[in-house]
Amino acid sequence: xxxxxxxxxxxxxxxxxxxxxxxxxxxxxxxxxxxxxxxxxxxxxxxxxxxxxxxxxxxxxxxxxxxxxxxxxxxxxxxxxxxxxxxxxxxxxxxxxxxxxxxxxxxxxxxxxxxxxxxxxxxxxxxxxxxxxxxxxxxxxxxxxxxxxxxxxxxxxxxxxxxxxxxxxxxxxxxxxxxxxxxxxxxxxxxxxxxxxxxxxxxxxxxxxxxxxxxxxxxxxxxxxxxxxxxxxxxxxxx
Length: 239
Description:
alpha+beta; Translation Initiation Factor IF3; Alpha-Beta Plaits; 2 domains; four-stranded antiparallel beta sheet; 5 helices; 38% strand
C-alpha cells in the first residue's frame, strides 16, 4: 500500500518536473523566435513646381538637300533672337537628336523628299514668364510639337523627405499595434520601398499650336509626391 503511494507521488513529481521543464523550454523557444511584423507606411507631400522644361522640335520637309543646313541654322538663329529678351543662359537651351531622313526616288529631276528634325529643350528656372516664352517659341518658323513639363529643382530632396515621412508613419503604426498586443518594438529589421511617384496636378502638359492667350491659360496647381514604404520590425514581450 505504501509502495503504491510512493509510486503515485513519484509519478506525480516526475510529471510536474516534466511539465515545468517543457514549459521553460517552450518559453525559451518562444523567446528565441523573433516576432517580425511588416507595416506599410504611406505619405504624401504637395508642393508647387518651380521649373518648366519646354520641349519642341525644329523640323521641316523639302525636295532637295542643297541647303537644308542653311535653313535649319536660320530657324535656330531666329529661335535665339526670340529668346533674347528673357533671362536665359546658354545652359538653358539644349539641342539634341539632329537627324536628316530621305526617301528614295526623284521628283522633277531632284532627289526624293527629305525631312530635317532636331529636338530642343528650353529650361525656365524662374517661373513667371513661361507663357511669354512659350508664345515666342511658337512664333519661330519650323517649330513643331511643343509641350511643357513642370517640375522642381529639388525633386530628389522632396522624394527623400516624403520617404522619411512614410517610414515614420510605419514606425508609429507598428508601435500602436505592439501596444495593443502587449509587445514593444525591439528594432527595425528591414526597409523596403516602392519608387516614389510624383504627379503634376492641374497642369496642361501638351500644348499644340497654342495662341498667346491659350499658353497663358495653361496653369499648374501643385505637384503631389506619394511614397509607400514597407518597414519590418521585430517585436518582443514587455519585460
